[in-house]
Amino acid sequence: MTVATPGPVAATHPEPAGVDNRVVVGGVALTWRELPTPALPDPAAVLAHSAAHALAAARQHAVRGTELLLSTASRVDAAMRADLSEAGFAVTVLDDDGTHPSAPARPRAADPGRLWLLTSGSTGRPKRVGHTLDTLTTVRADQPERTWLCPYAPGTYAWWQVVTLSLTQPGQHLVVVEPDELDDWPAVAAAHGVDAASGTPTFWRRTLYRDAAALARVPLRQITLGGEPVDQAILDQLRDVFPTARISWIYASSEVGASIVVHDGRAGFPVDWLDRQAPGRPTLSVRDDELVVTSPFHGAGLAGPVRTGDRVQVVDGRVLITGRLDSDEINVGGSKVSAGVVRGVLTGHPTVAWARVTGRRAPVLGRMVVAEVVLTPADPSEPASADAGVPDEAALVRWCADRLPDHAVPRRIRVLTEIPVKETLKSDV
């Protein structure tokens, strides 16, 4: 790992409690204390060219308390760079050759200790949400010693959740996976003793699809899912591979922080959690089928109830998060269909590894339900084939027809040969 630094940077904040935890990136093991602290402008919008550079920027912030926005270069286009410069940030590329800052268009004084996150942009163009290391640190109780895998894109909320856990909790070591290692991460994890891993449902589905046997060789004791709707099928598949691991799912966002944590192996959360108030804990409610969260972990300026934009349904005493309000609901001839519910039915089929459900224009009805699926390979060592023939489209339609009202049954199902994934480890669902 090479991260250029012009020399030591004097600390202005106490060293975090996890400073002696091990950090492995690019195959090199260091401690947080040994990571370089590059001299960055203040305030800076850092575009890190690798996970190593992102960790160095996080370490610099922890030591100096400077104002920082951290991202990968690919998530910040030219228009966003101009916006950041107008907002007073020195847009700074951090790579093996050192730091490369650009002077802000409108210089201003820094806001000490401020961390900025870019939202995922699932509802449009990414926006900035303000936090601090303290508001990003939601695990505060003593934890059993773990070595965590961090596959997330640097600077995302999920990335900061794993990074702050390692920074603030002794015994929480970190193995960071670069994008070019994602296909083979189980081998990296096994080599470095990873026993805890956090990822999106798409991340876990893709790993199971590509090489379930390699995944089973990783001695995982803690498995965490988040970032997308978590359905029963993926929880059950992971339980089959890791029968003794604790499997948790977390609802978290840049705006309201980590707000829901479920450990019982079931999709959704108990309906009696709604409107329950307890000091230091988020309050969950539902308005017009939308999840509303009042959270102590909220971003700057987001106190009070926050409408999340996520659609929920209450089924058999559980509150299920099915997807985004603006994309989950499909109007078929006046009847409302939840794309998330249909997706859950498809992924419940034993040979469907992944599914995406959308609406398509149709005569008379206005919209009809269509889907794309990736099939589990018959031979785990071979990729799935679109012409595998089992099950065919008609068989999947019948599967849905047995479990859904007629207007919700997909009328077209296309088979893909690879699970699509974005840099955020999410599918575009």
TrEMBL record:
Entry keyword set: Ligase
GO molecular function annotation: medium-chain fatty acid-CoA ligase activity
Signal peptide interval: none
Keyword flag Oxidoreductase: no
GO biological process: fatty acid metabolic process
Domain AMP-binding enzyme C-terminal as annotated: residue spans: 345-423
Domain AMP-dependent synthetase/ligase: 46-283
Pfam families reported for this sequence: AMP-binding, AMP-binding_C
Family annotation (PANTHER family): ACYL-COA SYNTHETASE, MEDIUM-CHAIN ACYL-COA LIGASE ACSF2, MITOCHONDRIAL
Family designation: Belongs to the ATP-dependent AMP-binding enzyme family.
Protein name: Long-chain fatty acid--CoA ligase
